[in-house]
Amino acid sequence: MPKTILTGLRPTGNLHLGHLFGAGKNYVKLQDEYDFYLEIADVQALTDNFNNPEKVRKNVTEITIDLLSIGLDPKKVNFFIQSKIPEIAELTVFYSNLVTVARLERNPTVKTEIAQKKELFGNDGESITYGFLGYPVSQAADITAFDGELVPVGEDQLPLIEQCREIVRKFNSIYGETLKEPNAKLSETKRVKGLDGNEKMGKSLGNAIFLSDDEETIHKKIMQAITDPNKIKKDDPANPDICMVYYYHKLVNTEENQNTICQECKKGNRGCVQCKKELITAMNNFLTPIREKRKYYEEHPEEVKKILDEGTKKAKQKAEEQMNKVRKAMQIDY
Ligand code: ATP
Ligand code: MG
């Protein structure tokens, strides 16, 4: 039996470069070797978008198209919608007993995200909801409902996988060996920075280059990217290591071009405007094949729907089997 992979994305916006380099490239590589379940995590997206259901609904399709556009093959990957698998909600209730509120409040990912969502949760997180605080528990249910062994994710997700492993250990110690402890799998690029220099490009952070951005948008965004603030004049030498333009050249340009850019920048032989224009060209070249695939799926919405329906059906079967094991272990298999 091939090992099982479970991973998920929140339908809160389109995919960006962070998703592609931090997670998506790994999905494409792993799809040949594993039994792959890919969750469109609409329930999790609602934890901090409960007041905006239209946004979540729209992005279920959008994100599926993005994922198909980067080369995921629906014959190899089961795309499914989280809310269509009630077993996940059921597991979440049982797991809630196995984790303390204090432990959730200490979770570094949860802490960072609460701080980023001041508008929703208040300055000190005083308005944080029960649902948001508990989303790591529901994520543990996502993974274990499919017996997920490997979870390809970006670096920001590591504390959530650790939390899942703790829940699994606790479950097994009380109810007997039932669940597998999953392992996180990071990409070579663990975390992609934002256009504003922020440590994380995030779809909810306003600092992302989206795979679906058109040429005009790419132009506008890159022209505004942060460069070395000490470089005032065109021929001042600068430090490429603190420049976001060089940072993205390293992602999408050839190694030869990267070396030239780096050397010219350090010597003061390269202006930022020229450098940005070259990045715009490289970025558009990089995005062209992705845009072409996206266009195909936009023109064939019935195919996208079928992919989600079929994937969800397979996911439901798998989650039902797993739930039977869990109910038996917990002696609630009446
Ligand atoms: P949101 O702000 O709504 O949480 P997000 O951009 O964090 O959106 P998610 O859907 O939460 O996106 O994450 C999907 C996957 O992409 C996760 O595995 C996450 O670790 C990874 N990921 C997201 N942003 C980055 C990034 N900047 N660098 C590397 N990986 C990333
Ligand atoms: Mg996120």
Provide a compact summary of the structure.
With 334 residues, this protein is mainly alpha-helical.
Question: Would you mind describing this structure in some detail?
Answer:
This protein has 334 residues and is mostly helical. The protein has two domains: 218 residues, Rossmann fold (3-Layer(aba) Sandwich), CATH 3.40.50.620; 81 residues, Tyrosyl-Transfer RNA Synthetase. The protein has a three-stranded parallel sheet with strand order 1-2-3. The longest helix is centred in the last third of the chain and has 29 residues. The two termini are 30 Å apart. The model has no long low-confidence stretch (mean pLDDT 95). The site of adenosine-5'-triphosphate has 18 residues, from helix 1. Adenosine-5'-triphosphate binds next to helix 1.
What structural keywords apply?
334 residues, mainly alpha, Rossmann fold, Tyrosyl-Transfer RNA Synthetase, 2 domains, 3-stranded parallel beta sheet, 15 helices, globular, binds adenosine-5'-triphosphate, binds magnesium ion
Helix content percent band: 55-70%
Instruction: Flag low-confidence runs.
Output: none
CATH topology term of the largest domain: Rossmann fold
Task: Please tally the β strands and state the result.
Answer: 5
Bound molecules: adenosine-5'-triphosphate, magnesium ion
The CATH superfamily title of the largest domain: HUPs
CATH class membership of the largest domain: Alpha Beta
Number of helices: 15
Strand order of the main beta sheet, please? 1-2-3
Q: What string, H for helix and E for strand, traces the elements in order?
A: EHEHHEHHHHHHEHEHHHHH
Just name the CATH architecture of the largest domain. Answer: 3-Layer(aba) Sandwich
Structural category is mainly alpha
Summarize the main sheet. 3 strands, parallel
What amount of the residues lies in strands?
A: 5-15%
Distance between the termini: 30 Å
| Radius of gyration, taken over Cα atoms and rounded to an integer in Å | 22 Å
